[in-house]
Structure formats: C-alpha cells, structure tokens
Amino acid sequence: MYSLDVNFLNDRPEYKPDVAKRSGRGGGVAIGGRRPLWIGLGVGLLLPLLTLASLLFLQNSNNALREDSAELDSQLQELQKQEAELKRLEADVKQAKDEATALATVFNQVKPWSALMQDLRDRIPPNVQITSVKQVAAPTPTGGGASPSPSPKSPTAVPPTYLEIIGKAKDFNDVNDLALMLERSPLVDGKAVQILGAKREAQERPLAPLTLPNQPQQAQTPDQQVRLPKLIDFSIRAGLTEMPASEMVDVLNAKGAKGLVTRLRVLQQKGVGQTPAKPQQKPAGAQTAEPKKAN
Fold this sequence. Notes:
InterPro entries: Extracell_DNA_Util/SecSys_Comp, PilN. The chain is an alpha+beta fold. It has helices at 16-26, 35-109, 113-123, 172-183, 249-254, 258-269, and strands at 128-136, 162-169, 188-200, 205-206, 227-228, 232-240.
C-alpha cells in the first residue's frame, strides 16, 4: 500500500526560507554574492595599471626635463658668450674713456707758447726790450717744504711751470711796470711773479756805424761815435697759472691758440674733461626778500 505524506506546513510562507536554506546548502553561489570578487579583481588590475601609467608619465616627464635642460644649457652657453663679449666691450669703452680723460687732462695742462708770447707782447711797456724767454724749473721751497699737492682744478700732481724773462729796460720803473703787467695776465699766477735781478750797465755802448754796400767805411773818432745810454739788465721769473685750459678757452682764443681751443671744444662737446658747475653761493649777510601781503 502506498502512503502519501502530505505536509501542509510547506504551503505556509514563514517556512519558505528554510526551504531556500536547505536548497542553498547543496547548490551554487548566488549571483549577488560574486560582486566583492569582481571588485577585488578590478582593484587588483587597476593598481598595476596605475603604476604603469605613473611610470610612463614619469619617464615622459624626465625626457621632457632632459630636453629642457639641454636647451637651457645651450642658452646659458650663448648668454655666457654674450656676457664675455659685453665685458670685453665694457673694458674697451673704459679704456677709451680713460685715454680720452688722460688726453683732456694733458690739454688742460698745456699752456701754448703762441698764446704766452702774444700775451707777453701785449704787456711789454714801450721802454722795455725782451731778449730771451725760457722755461725753468720750479724754485725749491725754502725750509724743505713738500712738493705741491694736487689742487681741485688740476687733479694730477704736476709741478707748476715757470718762465724766466730776460731783457733790457730804460730805467727801473719800466722793470716794475713789466712785473705789474705780468701779474695781471690771466695766464700767469700773479703771486708767482718775482724780479730776480735788475742792474744798470757798467758803461755806455757805442753804436756801430751804418755800412752801405759798395761804400767805403769811414773811420770815426771817439768824439764822432754815438754812444747808447746805460740800460737796465733785468731778469723776471713768472709762474704760469694752474687753472685748466678748458676754463680759459676765450682767453686762449683771443691770444691766437686756435688749435688748442678747437681740441678743447671738441672734447667738451663729447663730454670729456668738463669741469662740474659749482653751485652758486649766496653772499654772506644777504637776506631773502619776502613778498608783501596785500592789505
């Protein structure tokens, strides 16, 4: 006989999870349970890919940096060449400026003889005759004084120039007049003019007779000889001014030193050897006038 097992409890909903559990124990894995596996697999593949991508990016960056470094090195070498050329040009410019300044200094210290002789001719009194003019060494200071130091107008220590003027004069007053005229000269240091000696001749000099060509010379008796009056033999020492020639352009031009004046003006146009302008000082005791207020 067959018996039928009928269990009506299986039809109840609260007993269905048990059936699912029982069926799950011996069956496969549910689809929803494989999601962590896929996530772990994706993460496992993503990390090597990210590492590989980072490595490729770093390699590309290193290559780009090497190229930039090589380009910068080439630019640096070019700039270094330009800097060396610039330094060479600056050295050439400095040398040219130094040479121009030295040339301007030489011109400033020059006192042309043409201007000196013309100024001396303009100042000779009527009864004075100059026989020689020569340049002499500066007198040795008494008491063992030191050599002259550079002045603001003449930055280089150059010993002053002295002239010795030798001649004849009718009397001593003419010698004094010549010394006074030399003191007023802009080319001469008025404090450095000194009469070294003045002495009257010991005896009168006979005037040589006039001789004509193709005419016999006649002998003269002592009574017929013409004798010149006794003159004064003098010697004057005058020191030249230490003022730069660039500050005496008008004086030198008036005395005929055209060449030196032209050179000085060219140097001044180029800005070489110019003397800085001194600020004007207000005279002592001067008061500034205040504007009057209107009533």
